[in-house]
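Notes from the pairing session

We agreed to fold both candidates in a single pass and log them together. This is the raw record for the first candidate, unedited. Please don't reformat it; downstream parsing expects exactly this layout.

Candidate A
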Amino acid sequence: MMKLRNTLAAAALAILASVAPAFAARTDIRIGLVLEPAALDPTTTAGAATKEVTYQNIFEGLTQIDQNGAVQPALATSWTISPDNLTYTFTLAPNVKFHDGTPFTADDVKFSIERIIAPDSTNSQKDLYAGVIDSVTVIDPLTVEIKLKAPSGNFLFDLGRGAAVIVSPKTEANNATHPIGTGPFRFVQWDKGSRVVLERNPDYWGKPVALDKATFVFIGDPATAVSALLAGDVDGFNNFAAPEAVDIFKANPQFTVAVGTTEGETLLATNNKRKPFEDLRVRQAIAHAINRQELIEGAGHGFGVPIGSHFAPHNPYYIDLTNTYPFDPTEGKRLLAEAGFPDGFSTTIKLPPVPYARLGGQILAQQLAAIGIKAQLINVEWAQWLTDVYTNHDFDLTVISHVEPFDIGIYADPNYYFGYDDPEFQAIIAKLNATTDDAQRKDLAQQAQRRLAEQAVNGYLFELAQVGVWNSKVQGYWLNAPIEGVVLRDIHWVD
């Protein structure tokens, strides 16, 4: 009998040992993304898709932005600021290595920042840094000093953007296809058109992460996104491609629907240098033709907040300017006639492959037709949009969400793809950038918002919501998106 009991006990232990792994929390995750990055170097490539994969995962900056939008230490563990707000001295984290084993030092900071502000820099946010930074000096391997040309109230925040991550001079030339950073995850492979695979960095200098592997799967088609979640082919989307299907997942206890905010100002972006859009009356007419609520319901499926300028409603500096040019097709027709187009005119709208743009373009074409503007819709892939619209400025109108935080300053660049060249606005932004007093910054930010609204530079539609759908056993993802990125460091599974 004793022998039988021992045999049964041993068998039970063997069974438990064999099934235990089935109940252990998973350490891999598959996350769906709507867009595939054009490249994987966030310091040379525009677009949120690149940062969704790389920001705080592969690459890190001196500072980082947390999910509440606050500046936190990163590769710089601390810093001091001179009394005149012109000199920042950063103390760097020790014992940090790039993924190829190269030690991280102050020389890498100097190289990275000087690369951003160089005359031939292709950094999409170059103006944020080149117009502000005067010099970068290495004090010792773990100390670097940055001097500014003038005080900048946003400097520490801007250092935490994806565009300002630190790269190694040894590997930066290949970061577009084989990124090497200092972050908690390292690059494994990129199967073009399909996925990017990352794995945990075993030598990470910071807090260990729970995941061993993360795969970003590119699924732009809404129906495919729904099927992939239901089939378990992906474990979640931080920004779901099919908001019209959210109720399916709300009713299913296997999923969690997490609705938060983004910095995504959704625009009918306008080429202000191309006729007839250089005429304020034409832009005002377009503004009067836009029915924002119809767009939110039709393109955002009820998710989104109307905006009247290029500013996020959750920001404390925000003012509601949606009534600057209220929905009034009759007034839109009158303004077109006054501008010399009593019978309207024909134009084109280039639409990138995201649902809010494709659906929004159809609705906007109908709204513009009501005042006599006949808009041909041209669907383009993401890489083509970046080339045609963003780089070559070859467009009339386009629908796009600008997800970079506090990016109203892009309108001060006359060479930006909007083609907006306004000395009055440029002066406001110059004062804003040089001001550190919060009350003064708020006043200037509101002046800037009013100027853009009054000039109807673009059609200001709505602030994009972040609609996440996740396996209910996944936790640690960001509810809100104060900056571009799907930050993996806190994501984990629960039993």
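Candidate B (folded immediately after A)
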Amino acid sequence: MNFLIRPSAEVAIKSKPVRRQQIRQLRQNVSKILRRVDDRIRVEGSWDRVDVIVPDELDSQPLVDRLACIPGISNFLEVRDYPLTTLDDVAERALAVWGEALAGKTFAVRGRRTGEHDFSSADLERLVGSVLLAQSGASGVRLKDPDEQVRIEVIHDRYHIVERRFEGLGGYPLGSVETAVSLISGGYDSSVSTYLTMRRGLRTHFLFFNLGGAAHEVGVKQVAHYLWSRYGSSHSVKFISVPFEDVVGEIMRSVDHRHMGVVLKRMMLKAAAAITQTGMAKAIVTGDAVAQVSSQTLANLNVVDRASEEVVLRPLITMDKVDIIRTAEQIGTESFSRNMPEYCGVISSRPVTRAKLHRVEAEEAKMDPSVLERAIESRVETPIQRILDSISTPEEVELVQTPGVDDVIIDVRHPNEEERAPLHLTNNEVLHIPFYELNQRVDELTADCRYLLYCDKGTMSRMHAGHLKASGVDNVMVYVPA
């Protein structure tokens, strides 16, 4: 059993030197991935094709699953290889392989030859076609749009009969284009945009801005590892985690609330640019889709982009949310993203939709620049192969529907949320500590009191309570009103 791989159409139309280089890269990628299944697998080919030679006893399905996820492949064929003797022998082999599958269907025989032979491709097609028509139970031959196509390729003194045809990802071979760093939050948009960048052949590092503590990072690491292991494991990349809670806190304290969202995006872009300038990448990838949220109007995107001189790629820029979610389902990230807590680190009241650069820069000037510098310097870069080894699960926390009289409630919501929907409790003290300040103020919590964290959806409070417990703060629970 062998596989014949056809490169994507865009590879096929390149000039011969470029095509040769990209096919070489594709062969290397296929070899790296398939040899992890069995090191006896051989990957060969010429400047316009890739051949995979597989030991007969191997199960083909694991190889099919991997080939279907390798960028740069248009389609691939599972073939059986035989020594060439006579055309009658070819016809008998074709009947053995295709006989049952053609019953009641129309078909066409597609022949192709390489080398010198005493018959033409047309001769091959006519003879094999006549035998299949007479003995397979096929309803007839149809050269245009048949139900099935029987592909036979003669290469010098051997021939292939195609048993199955599979579609590939398309795009370019990973590593044949330049390198990018993708901003990933684990949600639908950033996961799909990262996948599309990888599919386009860019070796893609994962850049995560941590707004929600270690629990958020765990989820994003899982998404990133899935994307890499399924679509990009031919190349090693890094998962870069930048602690951004202090940056969020500085924005909250210093920036006009209408400009907070745009400023946060610019801070992320500045940090990403500083990281790419170390030589790691040539472009920054984001999951922006025009007008999806207030920070993604054309005016705001223009202001955001002025924060960096690096190339910013936005694969989703014209996609609808429904299409993005559909793509997430197809590539396998939907279940991750659906369960990913949303960390709206900056919640603006009446956010600006037509930001002016000079106004945004004036707001940023109020911030302490050392906060962003420390965040960049504190980043942790981990080889993607090892990120799952570093994941620790936060402690389980108890949920409380009715607080005791002596319980102290900690409202971890953003101040704007508190203002719009105040938490009123008759018998309990309520502390207002936004989630981004919890780590800095944990020393204020006394050991002789039970604290209940609260937020509207319960997500943020559970995550932070779990990690406070994991760090040794045992008297923390979560308030979930009945």
